[in-house]
Amino acid sequence: MIHIIYMAAGNSRRFGSNKLFYELDGKPMYRHLLDHLIEIKDRYNNLENTRTNKRLDSDEMDTDTVVDTYIGTDIGLSKKTGKKTKNAESSSPLVDITVVTRYLEILDYCSSIPDCHAVLSPDSEKGISYTIKAGIMAVQEQKKTGMQTGQGGVQTGQGGVRQKKPGKSSEVTHNSAETEEYYMFAVADQPYLKSQSVIKLINKVLENTRNERLAFSLRCGTAVGNPCVFHSSLIPQLLSLEGDKGGRSVAKKHDCVYVDIADESELMDIDTLSNSKQTGTL
After folding, report:
1. Distances in whole angstroms, Cα of residue 221 to Cα of each of 59, 75, 110, 232
2. Which partner for 229 in 136, 165, 216, 261 could form a disulfide, CB atoms 3.0-4.6 Å apart?
3. pLDDT in tens, 41-95
4. pTM, 2 dp
5. C-alpha distance from residue 198 to each of 33, 38, 146, 193, 242 (Å)
6. Cβ proximity of 146 and 172 under 8 Å
7. Are strands 215-220 and 162-164 parallel, antiparallel or unpaired?
């Protein structure tokens, strides 16, 4: 199983305003990659044979795949035709998403999307390590309460972290003795990352059936970037991070597997307003 932790809690110190809400092509920056990840999650979880790690073909995903908005809580994502379909619902999903944020607007958006868990992490202003820890702790709590397929409102968890209430579930949907777990960390200020690249990364992780490799990341030439994926055995090392130190230091210790992509702009983090203007439209 792959737990996607979407980190949308940055400080935007160099941007001049909150970059996560800066509008790119008609919607806030934070939603571009998030909407792609939700679509990818739904497509993986819709596969009939998830228990044998059946994979998506990255070539079938294109820039027209993701619709702009959800309406209500029963509307899913569609491809090109505009046809509305229900989101994937599975008692044993292959992929889930947890959004970590400091902003109520993002929390509210996630609350309208089925199976998109979200936590409010005020301590994230102290550095990215706090966001990483909040995401991991939220996933662990979801596993305990059987939230993988639940829907509901928002509640306050441990440490002042608010998260969506668990829905009805007869069992915890994950057993670490039965399936391996990976944690993928994606950042909300990377709006040009394409679905095809994320799928290539996920498929590489799924090929790691013997758990011979523990860390994975995207790369273009000599430039490396997010998302990064870690085997669950590395969680203690991720939880030991401090301040503004991210997971890249952990990946480097474990012979990280790099998945190559062709367009370096996909790896760009938008740190300044000039970055967003120079890169152009999506």
Report:
1. 21, 39, 34, 28
2. 216
3. 999 998 744 454 567 776 665 544 443 333 332 323 333 333 434 444 445 789 9
4. 0.77
5. 10, 12, 26, 8, 27
6. yes
7. unpaired
